[in-house]
Structures are given as structure tokens and as C-alpha cells.
Amino acid sequence: MSKTSIKIENLSTGYHHKKGNYVVAKKLSADINKGELTCLLGSNGVGKSTLLKTLCGFLPKLEGDVYIEEKNGLEYTPTELAKTLSVVLTEKINLRNMTVTDIVSMGRSPYTDFWGRLRKEDKAIVNQAIKHVGIQHLANRPIQSLSDGERQKMMIAKALAQETAIIILDEPTAFLDYPSKIEMMRLLHDLSRESSKTIFMSTHDLDLALQTSDCIWLLNKETGLHVGTPEDLAIEGTLTNFFESPSLDFNIETGLFGVKSFCNYYIETEGEDGQYKQMLKKALLRNHIQIERAEENLKTIPCKISVCDNTYTVKTKTQTIKCESIRQVLDTVYSVQQEAI
Ligand SMILES: Nc1ncnc2c1ncn2[C@@H]1O[C@H](COP(=O)(O)OP(=O)(O)OP(=O)(O)O)[C@@H](O)[C@H]1O
């Protein structure tokens, strides 16, 4: 059995206009594995939503082929496609007087009769889908009263009720607060693992994508698609090249990006390396001060910070100041710095 769930070959995406085609991305070729979480990353306007909509059949392709579960996308009837692939887009649905259960029940439409009547087993699947994403307490709530995170979970429950092998999501973590973003990525990752779903989603949450996805698709206007595990892309240098920016720093040990710090001062420290020293280092770096003399031309701040558990002591030539917080250390170092100028 093939492990490929979606395959694109020389796919060009874009929009048909009367005056001619507007090509967004040209000649893309790549595969998505079954039962994996794959994230599509790329800058604003590069064509992520256009690509997702083309894969779902919402937009006609300009050129090339899309294969879904080994069958050409063009050979699917709408009902067959709806039983194979479900889609969660960012657009808010504007339906009044409908509850969460009503919306999730719409996921059963490929399986119901002309009137959309739910059988006992359909209702059980809907309830199970609602339970799976942990929103049982919202089952009877009108949808206009939901928060963004709750609405996203409801749409994922609808996709689950649709019982498809593939779920495609356009920016499911947009508009969510940070803990909800993490929870959402975890839910999608668990779905790919526990229910063997193929999950393909676009996102701008680079660090979360690098930490949770099995595979990354990087889409670039000039160079097209770069595909690999987050780790392979890091080792090859593709990630650093792709997100090259004077303010971004890629840490090859963690495989994650951070804000680049530019230091012009050095301060001496003593005491054991541990959580408290690490936090001090982080706060000093934000203020352009290093505790390792990594660069030649750093100016030295004339004091020394001793770290002992959660107590910091700043020793200058004339005095010893005990500080109970990093805020206090920074204020003290700042005064020493000012005096030295
Ligand atoms: N209906 C349309 N007709 C013509 N051009 C369009 C249409 N919809 C989008 N575009 C253009 O296609 C390009 C790709 O848009 P798309 O929404 O796919 O980008 P994206 O990577 O998803 O961006 P973002 O990260 O900002 O959501 C953009 O230049 C956009 O202006």
C-alpha cells in the first residue's frame, strides 16, 4: 500500500481572469504522507491559501496534476471527494440560530439522504466528534456566541464528523492566544497519530510548526517548494536561508528561531549555571549585555554579578548591593553603566 496521501505534480496554481491567467505558483511537485501532520509555511501572499483551495478542488488548477489517495483529483465526484477530504477554512460562517451540534452535523451531509436526515449512527458520530475535540459543554450553544478558539474546534469536529482520511486546514492557529495555539497543534498532531488522519495545514506559527509537524512545506515565490522534516531542513540550512533576516537567529541545537541580540557590553558574573543565571543572561542580552566575552570589541561594565540560588549580588568597586529580583539587578547595572560613561 502506498504511503502517499496527496501528490502534486508540476502543479501551477492561480486565478482565471478574462484577460488571462494570474499565476500564483508554478510547477510545484511534492507528496504528503498518510497519517502525518504536514505544515505549509511561507510569507504573506506567496500562495498558501491558493494552493490549499486548489488541492480541495475549490479552485481549478492552471496546470499539472493533483492526486488524492492515488486517484486524480479530477476523477472524484463531489460526494466521493467529500468522503475523502474535509476542509477547515478561516472564513467565519455567518449562519444565525444554529448550534454547535447543528454545524458539526453538517459534516454528515455526504452520508445523509436528500433531506439531510440524521440516522442514529450519524448522531452518535457527531457526538463522538464533539467529544473528541473536548467541546461537549458547548454542544447546544449558538455559534455566534463562540470564541475564535471554540469556533475552530467546532470546525475541526465538523471535519471529524465527515470521517475523511484527509483534513486540510487554512491557518487553524490564526487569532488564537498562545496556549490555545499550542493546544490546537497538539490536537491536530494527536489526530494524525491516533486516528491516522492526514493533516495538511497552513500557518505562520513557525516555531510551533517546527516543533509539532512531521513534515514542512516551505513555499517561496522564486524558488518554489522545499519539503522535508523540520530537522532535515535545519541541517541542510534551508530553514536559515528561507527565513533569513537580520533580526532572526536560528539555534541549530534546538532547531528553533529566536530574536537576534546585538551586544555591545560585557559584564562579569560568578555562581553556578542554572535557571537563575540563565534568566539573568536572558534579561541582560535583551539589554545588549553579554556574560561571555564572545566578541572582541565589547565595552566592560565595571561591576560583577554573583548568582546564588535566587539571590543576585552586584559588586562594584565601592559597594555590594543585594538584589531580590532581576528588575533590581538591571536597575543597578544601569546606574553603574551611566556612572561609567
Ligand atoms: N480571487 C483572486 N483573484 C486574483 N488574485 C488573488 C485572488 N485571491 C488571492 N489572490 C492573490 O493571490 C496571491 C496569493 O494569495 P494567497 O491568499 O494564496 O496567499 P497566502 O500565502 O495564503 O497569504 P497570507 O499568508 O497573507 O494568508 C496574492 O497575491 C493574492 O493577492
Automatic annotation (TrEMBL):
Chief subcellular location: membrane
Keyword Nuclease assigned: no
Membrane topology: Peripheral membrane protein
Localization annotation: Cell membrane
Molecular function per GO: ATP binding
Record flagged with keyword Chaperone: no
Alphabetically ordered keywords of this record: ATP-binding, Cell membrane, Ion transport, Iron, Iron transport, Membrane, Nucleotide-binding, Transport
Name of one Pfam family that matches: ABC_tran
Limits of the ABC transporter domain: 6-246
Record-linked InterPro entries: AAA+_ATPase (IPR003593), ABC_transporter-like_ATP-bd (IPR003439), P-loop_NTPase (IPR027417), Siderophore_ABC-ATPase (IPR051535)
Protein name (record): ABC transporter ATP-binding protein
Annotated organism of origin: Falsiporphyromonas endometrii
